[in-house]
């Protein structure tokens, strides 16, 4: 029997398989294969076996789900509704098996039936309903809310096609549809009875009702139906299950028969095609007016459906809306759901006859907003003209909110025209645009950043004047990751070693990782730790060989940068250092160079031409370096295409060095930095985002910090973006830029990278040239550390031992206590009780 101090059925190491449970699971899988798939074992494909096993597991999850739902409603518990345009949930099969404690049982049962769990896992596509960190954070948060038994629903869009599938053809990124629903989705439950009408366009009319009150009536021109699909999200040990509710769009009348019968077969389904476009694809290209309109339609569609749904749920259980904030907490994940402010006001004022002032108090007390970026272009703005055409009632509400808001600004700073313009919800300087970040800020009772530095910079930069107007609104909630996926599932060998070294309690209480500290210098334990890392590196080396036909040595230093391709994340700095290192090796091939594999993965937005050019540069450099006999394998470069959660689960456990090299002051937090450090990679990075808190926890001696700090970047930008001064002082940098710009890595098109060389010299906005020498020297310091194996291993072990605070359970506990006012049950990791001063939560 399992240790009773740990509830649930997760097997203790060495525990024998329960034969009765094993027989039951085999029977359930075979029954699903026959009755739900319609196949017998002899005719079943791998996909059939996968679906049968997933459905058998889903049955066990549903019992927990319905029980948890009933208990929370019976108890009248406050509920959290998490609104996010992205949920990068990845594969659910093994994640749910792990959280339910059924992974060994299902693996044995399937093996007895003649199929391998590892093969079935590959049949499940990644649900790539997100772009990167934002969507993955939402997935981690959903899992942690279930683990902490917080009644919650995640709301988003059920995209027909997730983020594009990335193909690298002759070094260039090409985008193809990601058909994640091609074989169906055994995890979701369609709810055809849950349908809401979402309106667009038309006009508004002001009338006076029978009580003499002026009312506004919206006469929309178009209606789209939102249909619900629910996916269960399992908490650790299966004790609590929440729902992820995704909305699909359809037209109320999918086929106009009168039009069809005239012979206009395409026109007959035009309304359906227009409606379905809303959920067709994540992040349509917004370079065109049509693309921008579709993006706004997407955002309003999911916000409106979600708020209608949560209001109906609340009314069904509570009967009235006056006490909504005491029973409902709505979290806006970034600016995409900002329309929740106006939509909740519309629902309260137009549909439920609340007076404006009371509706506003309810709205602000219910909503809270997470900001994820300091980049002005990511704080969405929309032309007033587009807003007026698409959402006339909401623009009217924004104007009225702005009147009261600006009155407060005038009272705080009388006659200050610049202050008034700065805080206004309407930007009058750029062709009159609605500021969505401002709207979310004004309409929420709490606004949080996602790392200590980011939250401080919010007060000093993008929300400086709003912070002055609402001084108690901004708070910090440093991001976290779910250890269940990013340690236990992604790195089972390390997890087994941790269970032996720290005890079974480490599965429930990440603070138990600190027990590793006493083993960090132990030679025998270091050998075990290195053996785990080497095994993971062999797996990644095999994958690189299969995908790229590039042979890499698992004994080399695996240097990893995996994230969205963007100038501020500075993959360009990494590849320029690669060029400089390559040139140095060629100059002195007889030196004892540290063998290094540079591993890149990430997608560039389809319209982001410069980022796509950087991908081409990485691949062109790889082509030259990997085939140069002088280098003789001491340096390899690998760009792994189509980065997703499943690929990350292979790369992260194998990484030796984690590249977190964004321009200081531009990365809000990062979570890849946490995943990599948790798996024993040392970080090389700037003092940016959560790197600062990682340094504070793992110790400055166990991380490599380089480059300018945020204020240094501000000062240098004010001096200008010309970098010829630093290039002149750096022969290595000058030589690398010249090689790139002159076509040494693009002999077929010598001018291909001239624009990159020009930007590095004269338009160094992201401080790539300015930080190069510091980065290069930090990398040579990494080389020196790598050669002292016991010291490197000790630092790697201490990174794992000191990462407990970066659990998303801790982050969600802080949201629950400080923002949502929701009681937390479930596991109680000791790390969550650590004093804020010690864990670096505030500065």
TrEMBL record:
Catalytic activity: [(1->4)-alpha-D-glucosyl](n) + phosphate = [(1->4)-alpha-D-glucosyl](n-1) + alpha-D-glucose 1-phosphate
EC number(s) recorded for this UniProt protein: 2.4.1.1
One Pfam entry name: Phosphorylase
Keywords tagged on the record: Allosteric enzyme, Carbohydrate metabolism, Cytoplasm, Glycosyltransferase, Pyridoxal phosphate, Transferase
InterPro entries the UniProt entry points to: Glycg_phsphrylas (IPR011833), Glyco_trans_35 (IPR000811), Pyridoxal_P_attach_site (IPR035090)
Subcellular location: Cytoplasm
EC category name: transferase
Coiled coil: none
Residues with the N6-(pyridoxal phosphate)lysine modification: 675
Gene3D superfamilies for this protein: Glycogen Phosphorylase B
Domain of life the protein comes from: Bacteria
Cofactor needs: pyridoxal 5'-phosphate
Molecular functions per Gene Ontology: glycogen phosphorylase activity; pyridoxal phosphate binding
Keyword Transmembrane helix: no
A GO biological-process term: glycogen catabolic process
GO CC list: cytoplasm
Signal sequence region: none
Protein family membership: Belongs to the glycogen phosphorylase family.
Role played: Phosphorylase is an important allosteric enzyme in carbohydrate metabolism. Enzymes from different sources differ in their regulatory mechanisms and in their natural substrates. However, all known phosphorylases share catalytic and structural properties.
Name of the protein in question: Alpha-1,4 glucan phosphorylase
Species per Swiss-Prot/TrEMBL record: Bradyrhizobium canariense
């Amino acid at each position: 029997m399992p240790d009773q101090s740990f509830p649930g059925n997760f097997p203790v190491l060495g525990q024998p398989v329960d034969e009765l449970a094993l027989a039951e699971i085999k029977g359930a899988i075979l029954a699903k294969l026959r009755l739900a798939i319609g196949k017998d074992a002899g005719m079943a494909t791998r996909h059939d076996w996968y679906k049968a096993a997933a459905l058998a597991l889903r049955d066990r999850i549903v019992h927990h789900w319905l029980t948890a739902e009933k208990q929370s409603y019976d108890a009248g518990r406050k509920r959290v509704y998490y609104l996010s345009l992205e949920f990068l949930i990845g594969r659910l099969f093994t994640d749910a098996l792990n959280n339910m404690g059924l992974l060994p049982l299902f693996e044995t049962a399937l093996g007895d039936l003649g199929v391998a769990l590892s093969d079935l896992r590959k049949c499940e596509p990644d649900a790539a309903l997100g772009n990167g960190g934002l969507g993955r954070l939402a997935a981690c948060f959903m899992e942690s809310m279930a683990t902490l038994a917080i009644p919650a629903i995640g709301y988003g869009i059920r995209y027909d096609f997730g983020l594009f599938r990335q193909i690298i053809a002759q070094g260039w990124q090409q985008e193809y549809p990601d058909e994640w629903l091609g074989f169906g989705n055994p995890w979701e439950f369609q709810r055809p009875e849950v349908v809401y009408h979402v309106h667009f366009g038309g006009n508004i009319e002001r009338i006076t009702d029978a009580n003499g009150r002026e009312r506004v009536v919206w006469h929309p021109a178009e209606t789209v139906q939102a249909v619900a699909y629910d996916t269960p999200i399992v908490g650790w040990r299966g004790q609590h299950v929440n729902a992820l509710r995704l909305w699909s769009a359809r037209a109320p009348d999918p086929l106009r028969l009168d039009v069809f019968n005239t012979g206009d077969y395409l026109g007959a389904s035009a309304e359906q095609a227009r409606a379905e476009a809303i959920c067709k694809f994540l992040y349509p290209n917004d370079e065109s007016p049509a693309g921008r309109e579709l993006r706004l339609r997407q955002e309003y569609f999911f916000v409106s459906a979600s708020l209608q749904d949560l209001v109906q749920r609340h009314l069904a259980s509570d009967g009235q809306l006056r006490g909504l904030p005491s029973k409902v907490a709505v979290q806006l994940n970034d600016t995409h759901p900002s329309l929740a402010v106006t939509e909740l006001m519309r629902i309260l004022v137009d549909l439920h006859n609340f007076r404006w002032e009371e509706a506003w108090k309810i709205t602000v007390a219910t909503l809270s907003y997470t900001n994820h970026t300091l980049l002005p272009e990511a704080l969405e703005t929309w032309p007033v003209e587009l807003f007026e055409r698409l959402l006339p009632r909401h623009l009217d509400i924004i104007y009225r909110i702005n009147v009261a808001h600006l009155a407060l600004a005038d009272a705080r700073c009388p006659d200050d025209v610049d202050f008034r313009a700065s805080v206004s919800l309407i930007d009058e300087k750029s062709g009159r645009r609605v500021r969505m970040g401002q709207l979310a800020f004004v309409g929420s009772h709490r606004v949080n950043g996602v790392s200590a530095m980011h939250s401080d910079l919010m007060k000093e930069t993008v929300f400086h004047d709003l912070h002055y107007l609402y001084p108690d609104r901004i708070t910090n909630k440093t991001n976290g990751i779910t250890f269940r996926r990013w340690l236990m599932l992604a790195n089972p060998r390390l997890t087994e070693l941790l269970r032996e070294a720290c005890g079974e309690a480490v599965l429930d209480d990440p603070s138990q990782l600190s027990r590793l500290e006493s083993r960090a210098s132990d030679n025998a334990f270091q050998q075990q730790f290195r053996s785990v890392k080497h095994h993971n590196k062999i797996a990644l080396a095999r994958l690189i060989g299969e995908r790229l036909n590039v042979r890499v040595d698992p004994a080399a230093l695996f240097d990893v940068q995996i994230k969205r391709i963007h100038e501020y994340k500075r993959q360009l700095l990494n590849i320029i250092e690669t060029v400089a290192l390559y040139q140095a090796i060629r100059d002195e091939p007889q030196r004892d160079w540290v063998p290094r594999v540079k591993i890149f993965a990430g997608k560039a937005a389809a319209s982001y031409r410069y980022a796509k050019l950087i991908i081409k540069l990485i691949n062109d450099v790889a082509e030259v370096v990997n085939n140069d006999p002088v280098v003789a394998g001491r340096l390899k470069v690998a760009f792994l295409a189509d980065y997703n959660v499943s690929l990350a689960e292979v790369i992260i456990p194998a990484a030796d060095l984690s590249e977190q090299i964004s321009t200081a002051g531009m990365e809000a937090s990062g979570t890849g930095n946490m995943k990599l450090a948790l798996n024993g990679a040392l970080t090389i990075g700037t003092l940016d985002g959560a790197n600062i808190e990682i340094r504070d926890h793992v110790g400055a001696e166990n991380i490599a910090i380089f480059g300018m700090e945020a204020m240094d970047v501000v000062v240098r930008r004010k001096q200008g973006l010309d970098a010829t001064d630093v290039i002149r002082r750096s022969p290595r940098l000058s030589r690398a830029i010249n090689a790139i710009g002159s076509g040494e890595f693009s002999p077929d098109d010598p001018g291909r990278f001239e624009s990159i060389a020009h930007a590095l010299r004269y338009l160094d906005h992201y401080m790539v040239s300015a930080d190069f020498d510091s980065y290069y020297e930090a990398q040579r310091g990494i080389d020196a550390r790598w050669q002292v194996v016991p010291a490197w291993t000790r630092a790697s072990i201490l990174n794992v031992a000191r990462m407990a605070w970066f659990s998303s359970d801790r982050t969600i506990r802080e949201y629950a206590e400080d923002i949502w006012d929701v009681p937390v049950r479930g596991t109680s990791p000791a790390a969550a009780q650590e004093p804020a001063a010690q864990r670096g939560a505030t500065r």
